[in-house]
């Protein structure tokens, strides 16, 4: 293999790896506000509360949450354990740091819209 071929191959590998790193770092992430332990306790805390009850809790707190800097909306979301949480939509990750971890015993998760 000639020196030029080795240089071209090395350059190709570097560009490919750099592209992969950049692509992976652009993945959208959900920022959990509550500690992970609270998510696993979700079903115990909620008892028999169903999604309708969580939506009502979300609706009761939406105006209050929208007054907070950086908050752009609210939603109800399903967690990996099958329970429900109130999702607070923020314009950036920094806004999610000053949010409550529970609303009426329902876990809160924040998601940055950036």
> Radius of gyration, rounded?
21 Å
The arrangement of helices and strands along the chain is HEHHHEEEE
**Any idea what the CATH architecture is?**
2-Layer Sandwich
Shape: elongated
Number of strands: 5
Q: How is the biggest beta sheet arranged?
A: 5 strands, mixed
CATH fold topology: GMP Synthetase, Chain A, domain 3
Outline of the structure:
By secondary structure, the protein is of the alpha+beta class. The protein has helices at 3-25, 36-40, 42-46, 51-66, and strands spanning 30-32, 71-78, 84-90, 102-103, 106-112.
Keywords:
114 residues; GMP Synthetase, Chain A, domain 3; 5-stranded mixed sheet
Question: Would you give an account of this structure?
Answer:
This protein is an alpha+beta fold and 114 residues long. The chain has one domain: GMP Synthetase, Chain A, domain 3 (2-Layer Sandwich), CATH 3.30.300. The chain contains 4 helices and 5 strands; from the N terminus they run H-E-H-H-H-E-E-E-E. The longest helix is centred in the first third of the chain and has 23 residues, at 3-25.
Give the topology, please.
Layout: H1 3-25, E1 30-32, H2 36-40, H3 42-46, H4 51-66, E2 71-78, E3 84-90, E4 102-103, E5 106-112
Parallel strand pairs: 3-5
Antiparallel strand pairs: 1-5, 2-3, 4-5
């Amino acid at each position: 293999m000639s020196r030029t071929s080795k240089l071209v191959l090395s350059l190709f590998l570097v560009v490919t790896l750099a592209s992969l790193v950049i692509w992976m770092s652009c993945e959208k992430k959900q920022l959990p506000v509550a500690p992970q332990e609270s998510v696993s306790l979700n079903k115990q805390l909620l008892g028999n509360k169903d999604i309708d009850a969580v939506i009502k809790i979300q609706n009761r707190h939406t105006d209050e949450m929208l007054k907070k800097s950086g908050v752009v909306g609210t939603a109800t979301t399903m967690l990996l354990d099958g329970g429900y949480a109130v999702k607070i939509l923020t314009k950036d990750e920094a806004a999610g740091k000053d949010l409550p971890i529970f609303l009426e015993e329902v876990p809160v998760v924040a998601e940055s819209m950036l």
